[in-house]
Specification:
Layout: E1 8-9, H1 15-26, H2 34-37, E2 50-54, E3 58-70, E4 75-85, H3 94-108, E5 113-117, H4 120-123, E6 129-130, E7 136-137, E8 147-151, E9 162-165, H5 167-178
Parallel strand pairs: 4-5, 7-9
Antiparallel strand pairs: 1-2, 2-3, 3-4, 3-9, 5-8, 6-8
């Protein structure tokens, strides 16, 4: 096994390998999950899609982030996910290395709030917490115990509430409601 815990930028040539890793990690039904609704029609946040390469497997891990807006105030946030680690390389620190690297980069790039849907005990190790009940809503079902946040800037969640959507979907809804009816 030859890999380093140093992430590198995901390139277009990695796209098929990342999709294969995601299918292997989460199954083919992964695209039906609510978190995928938040990615539809969006491009990943520039510079935050990272991979860990492995000489035997190709990719040992991959992570990406997606732009979000929240509520009527259009508060910005980013969605962490998916984060995948090849089953043959789990419990070696790959997921944590990807998160630590990209969360620092996200903060340095001015992002203030990160959301995700995932296993709280795993993500709490890097500072994620459960969202207060009823504060934010997603466009589909989600277990509230798995809806997590991390403030990259203290207080980033203060005053934020409402529906979480990708920017283009929020813009479509705002335009539809702005049109005169009748």
């Amino acid at each position: 096994m030859t890999f380093t815990l140093t992430p590198s930028a995901q390139t277009h040539s990695d796209d098929c390998s990342v999709e294969d890793l995601l299918d292997l990690s989460f199954g083919l039904g992964r695209r039906t999950k609510t978190s995928y609704r938040l990615r539809e029609g969006s491009r990943p946040v520039e510079g935050l899609s990272q991979v860990i390469r492995d000489s035997e497997l190709g990719l040992a891990g991959a992570i990406s982030y997606w732009p979000l807006v929240i509520g009527k105030t259009f508060a910005p946030a980013i969605l962490l996910g998916p984060l995948a680690v090849h089953p043959a390389r789990q419990n070696l620190g790959i997921g944590r290395a990807l998160m630590n690297f990209t969360l620092e980069r996200a903060k340095a790039n001015g992002h203030k709030l990160v959301l995700l849907v995932g296993d709280a005990p795993y993500y709490e190790r890097v500072g994620f917490q459960k969202l207060p009940a009823g504060l934010l809503q997603l466009p589909g079902p989600v277990d509230p115990a798995r809806f997590l946040f991390l403030e990259l800037v203290p207080g980033a969640l203060k005053g934020v509430s409402g529906m979480v959507l990708p920017p283009q979907r929020q813009a479509e809804l705002s335009a539809a409601f702005a049109k005169p009816h009748g």
